Amino acid sequence: MQSSQHKNSRIAMLVVALSLIGGTGCVHYLIARSASETNEQRDARLALQQKENQDRFQREALRQQEEQKQEALKIQKREQEEQQKTDALVKGASANDPYSKTYLAIEYLKPNGKFPRDVLKGLSLLKSAVGDKYPEAEYLYGWLLIQGALDNGQYKLKLKPSELALSPETGVRLISTVASKKCSIYLDDVKIGPDKEIYRLPAFYSPSGDLMKIYSDGRYISRDRSKAELWFARTILHCDEYFELSQRQPLRYVGYEYFSDAKTLAFFMLRSTRQDMKERPEDVERKRQFLKTLKPEQVQEANVIVEELRFSARKSEQEYPAPLPFVMKK
């Protein structure tokens, strides 16, 4: 009896001591259970915990195996889709389809395409599609003639001078032809999801924007500011594109900081001369700022420049018609 009382008093003292460090409830429960739990009960409890842990680990392993299986199925499906697409390109090219010839040519020209790199075969297919006047082929071949390379963000084509002799003038003519057909060129497949959402959008190019820069910087052919401004105007009038403003000179376009105030205002105003175009609030604010600071004669000069730009664009359409709006292929 005394031994039992002595044991209980020791436990009580331990509980009191532990309560001083904030563990009273939890520690009291553990001590009480420890004091009353037999060896058999402890072994059973530990065995149950071990089994629960094993079951949990087994469920986690099965979950991971299922995830790996699903991922492998996705990879297999993508590979099958890519193979089907490649087979379709080969079949289409054999049937003289310009789309198939263009994209099959890209696969042969890529450094890591679906086939071993074969520049001769790739260029042969590409030139054949150019002969069909296919815009994407004309654009790609045009840039290869201009600089021997094209980087679309997903792949980079680069040819050696021994593989293709450069001819910038011919390349520029091809780009000009493309600019009369399309506002945007995509040199990769556009995939549309089940709800018609685009889940892989490749880089796109603006042929008229390219010509604007080509004539402006004089890197590939002689600089011609009048042609640069013409293609600048066409890019706005035909394709409704917007351009970055200079950080160094507010209200100036990047690359066109040399424009006078009147000419800069004219390009801001050019968009509003088309009734089917809606001006952005930013454009309205830019024009408002200009009109606050310019003299009346400068504003009048801007109006004259607008009409000259519109006239030049219309005249150029005799050689290079206005392009049709881009319609995404589904």
Describe the SSE topology.
Elements lengths: L1 H18 L4 H13 L2 H56 L3 H12 L9 H13 L3 H13 L1 E3 L4 E3 L9 H12 L5 E2 L4 E2 L5 E3 L3 E2 L1 H11 L7 H15 L21 H10 L10 H13 L2 H21 L14
Antiparallel strand pairs: 1-2, 3-6, 4-5
Could you write a compact summary of the structure shown?
This protein is mostly helical and 330 residues long. It has helices at 2-19, 24-36, 39-94, 98-109, 119-131, 135-147, 168-179, 207-217, 225-239, 261-270, 281-293, 296-316, and strands at 149-151, 156-158, 185-186, 191-192, 198-200, 204-205.
Descriptive notes:
With 330 residues, this protein is mainly alpha-helical. It folds into 2 domains: 136 residues, Serine Threonine Protein Phosphatase 5, Tetratricopeptide repeat (Alpha Horseshoe); 116 residues, no CATH class. The protein is built from 12 helices and 6 strands. It has a two-stranded antiparallel sheet with strand order 1-2. Strand 4 and strand 5 form a beta hairpin. Helix 1 runs antiparallel to helix 2, helix 5 packs across helix 6 and helix 8 packs antiparallel against helix 9. The longest helix has 56 residues. The C terminus is likely disordered.
List its salient traits.
330 residues, mainly alpha, Serine Threonine Protein Phosphatase 5, Tetratricopeptide repeat, two-stranded antiparallel ribbon, two-stranded antiparallel sheet, flat
What is the third-level CATH name, the topology of the largest domain?
Serine Threonine Protein Phosphatase 5, Tetratricopeptide repeat
What is the CA–CA distance across the termini?
91 Å
| Structure classification | mainly alpha
Helicity range of the residues?
A: 55-70%
